[in-house]
Write a structure and sequence with these properties.
The complex is a heterodimer. By secondary structure, chain A is of the alpha+beta class. Chain A is 25% helix and 44% strand. Chain A is elongated. Classes of the chains: A alpha+beta, B alpha/beta.
């Protein structure tokens, strides 16, 4: 079944590791929506979070191929029901002044905060699950989105579970 | 002790048991070659004519010994000339460590003379690669490179070393390499499930590949095949991993495999794939391959499971251990009726030979004659094209590591270098290179190397004066429009050989073949035989790309 899956990867933060990962994704034709790289809190390791589209076999292939990269120590699916996945968005919405209150009341239901006020625009910051962010964008679209930037996903397992660095 | 980077390289090679390296000197590796001069009593360096030849030689060395091949080249063009050789090794999972020089750290990233980002270039064709910017990291990187090349699914690793690192001095402490272990990735229940599927099968077959050779698992495969008494087909890469003379062996599978292997694949109810990857040259139609069969896949690389063909059971791990455990888990059975059926298919001779002629020898006749003269221990190398397929169909390999061919990448020009590596690694064994006039033209410069080292390689050029394999496809699929496959070359390969200082001979037809081959193979000297064959010879049978045995072509005009 074609679906969206989040995969969490722990990799040695050697130079070029991001290139190895992106090169593999492109070479093997995997279809990814976002990829974020950041420190993992474990010394010497980076965490990469990938959101990809694919059926179960494609996701399994993705993980097995990733694990062949020498610098990658762990790669696991983070299932939606047992993990928390969030992203942050900055979105600049067209506003002629008259609809300003409509926009603000809409965004407040998403706990988005107004971070900048332009002459003809409002810029909001919001965070949430990828589907919440998708929904916010959908609802803001009629007003006219001038530009936006999404961070990509940060995700961790629920409870005490961790992606340990030791294999 | 205090050593410079180049001496550390030499010491680390010795740690790994390396006594032979292939390569070509240049500006960025002057320090390394100075160390090789110093260590010349412990490490033999074979100088090729071109870096590509050195890379293929390291590959041929690795294939015929099971050891890791080592190749050294300078920065820039030296490094890029290795690329085809590294990619060839990568596709066939051949262990290799390639060491390239680069410009000094202070010149890196400035487009300096002979600078190239070789780690970037070789990223998709190596298991891993390194650039070592500090001499303190050098020894550990080299150790790690060998470990990566030789562990799990084997393959090439590249180490790029800036020139200043090869000259910088630091403390070196010797270290013995740790034993490489490949843990089993399957549970006892996986073996039980596979054994149950095998017990239920009425018409099982084994499809083996190069993994058997790579894992040195030929004895384990033999024991397993005999215990379950089923036909064994092989990919081109697996040749030699199962004795060709064995009653269960049915030959190669795939595009130019026999009628019986195609029929067996379609009619079996169980396929046990052992160290094979269902490449498009074997499973032309991925959906229909083994359409009536349950499939069990044994492989050391988990990423191969379900990559090309969906399988029902998988056992991941070293093939030697996996096959041993699986053999223990299965009951001894007989499949007389099924084996008899496969033998019946084998009787259907699917190849019509072209008529005898004064002007041409038959490729099969040449291959069979060589086969009858050589012993099972001698080594056969090929280039790529029609001659390669004819050898894979006809030559009877009895033992592993006597066969070098570029299976995955299909590298024309591979043969000369590989034959050099095989000959250097196996003094006392005969090495025969079957090549075509197209492939031989690509890298015949290595005859100079063969001559320098007096390597007793016999090169048989099956010369049809055309680019035969592509021409065959043009006949079949492009309405006989022979675009750029008939180059009208007049090369006299025997005369070319003589010009390099190598003995040149000729075979005109079948009747003079045996005498010429016997004479050539009785000498301890390099020989090139220009053997005239018809441009109209085809490789048959043939399953067209993307098709199955039902579409097999057995005759062509």
């Amino acid at each position: 079944m074609e679906n969206k899956q989040i995969i969490s990867i722990l990799a040695h933060n050697h130079p070029g590791v991001l290139l190895r990962i992106t090169s593999l994704i492109s070479r093997r034709g995997f279809n990814i929506d976002s990829l974020t790289a950041s420190p993992s809190g474990i010394e010497g390791y980076s965490r990469l979070t990938v959101r990809m589209s694919g059926d179960d076999n494609q996701v399994e292939q993705f993980i097995n191929q990733m694990l062949k990269i020498v610098d990658i120590k762990k790669a696991e699916v983070l299932p939606e029901e047992t993990s928390v996945a969030m992203e942050l968005i900055l979105v600049k919405v067209n506003s002629d002044g008259s609809n300003q209150n409509d926009i603000i009341s809409l965004t407040s239901t998403y706990h988005a905060s107004l971070v900048n006020l332009g002459e003809h625009s409002l810029t909001f910051r919001a965070s949430g699950t990828p589907s919440q962010i998708d929904k916010l964008i959908e609802e803001l679209s009629p007003f006219g989105i001038l530009e936006m930037a999404r961070t990509g996903i940060a995700a961790l397992q629920n409870g005490d579970n961790c992606l340990a660095a030791k294999k | 002790m205090q050593l410079n980077g180049s001496e550390i390289i030499a010491e680390c090679l010795l740690e790994q048991g390396v006594d032979t390296v292939f390569g070509y000197p240049g500006g960025a590796v002057l320090n390394i070659y100075d160390a090789l001069y110093k260590y010349s009593d412990k490490i033999t360096h074979i100088l090729s004519s071109h870096e590509q030849g050195a890379a293929h030689a390291a590959d041929g060395y690795a294939r015929t010994t099971g050891k890791c091949g080592v190749v050294i080249a300078t920065s820039g063009p030296g490094a890029t000339n290795l690329v085809t050789g590294i990619a060839t090794a990568f596709m066939d999972s051949i262990p290799m460590v390639a060491i390239t020089g680069n410009v000094s750290n202070d010149l890196l990233a400035r487009d300096s003379f002979q600078e190239v980002d070789i780690t970037g270039i070789t990223l998709p064709i190596t298991k891993h690669n390194f650039i070592v910017k500090n001499v303190k990291d050098l020894a550990d990187v080299i150790r790690k490179a060998f470990r990566i090349a030789m562990s799990g699914r084997k393959g090439p690793v590249l180490i790029d070393i800036p020139k200043d690192v090869t000259g910088a001095v630091c403390e070196y402490t010797p270290e013995q390499p740790r034993l490489i272990e490949n843990p089993l990735g399957s549970e006892p229940s996986d073996f039980e499930a596979a054994a149950k599927a095998i017990a239920q099968a009425k018409r099982p077959m084994i499809y083996m590949g190069g993994g058997i050779v790579s894992a040195d698992a030929e004895q384990e495969l033999l024991a397993f095949a005999e215990k379950i008494d089923c036909p064994v087909a092989t990919s081109i890469m697996g040749l030699g991993g199962f004795p060709s003379s064995h009653r269960l062996f049915i030959g190669t599978i795939g595009m130019h495999g026999g009628y019986e292997t195609g029929k067996a694949t379609d009619n079996c109810d169980l396929i046990i794939a052992a160290g094979a990857r269902f490449s498009d040259r074997v499973a032309g139609d991925r959906e229909k391959f083994g359409k009536n069969a349950t499939i069990i896949q044994l492989d050391i690389d988990r990423a191969e499971i379900n990559k090309n063909v969906f399988v029902d059971y998988s056992l991941v791990g070293d093939l030697k251990d996996t096959l041993r455990c699986l053999t223990d888990a299965v009951e001894s059975t007989k499949h007389e009726e099924w084996n008899a059926q496969v033998s019946e298919w084998a009787k259907r001779s699917s190849v019509t030979e072209t008529p005898a002629s004064e002007d041409y020898a038959h490729p099969y006749h040449i291959i069979e004659t060589v086969n009858s003269i050589l012993s099972d221990d001698d080594i056969v190398v090929t280039d790529v094209g029609q001659h390669q397929m004819w050898v894979s169909q006809k030559y009877r390999f009895e033992k592993p590591r006597r066969w070098c061919t570029s299976g995955g990448l299909g590298t024309m020009g591979y043969g000369m270098g590989a034959a050099i590596g095989a000959a250097v690694a196996n003094p006392g064994k005969k090495v025969v290179l079957f090549t075509g006039d197209g492939s031989f033209h690509m890298n015949l410069n290595e005859l100079a190397t063969v001559c320098s080292y007096k390597l007793p390689i016999v090169v048989i050029v099956l010369n049809n004066k055309v680019l035969g394999m592509v021409r065959q496809w043009q006949k079949l699929f492009y309405g006989h429009r022979f675009s750029q496959t008939d180059p009208h070359r007049k090369t006299d390969f025997a005369a070319v050989a003589e010009a390099f200082g190598v003995k040149g001979m000729k075979i005109h037809n079948d009747s003079d073949a045996e005498a010429v081959l016997k004479e050539a193979l009785s000498q301890e000297l390099p020989v090139v035989i220009d053997c005239s064959i018809s441009p109209d010879e085809n490789v048959l049978p043939m399953i067209p790309p993307g098709k199955t045995v039902d579409d097999m072509i057995t005759e062509m005009e």
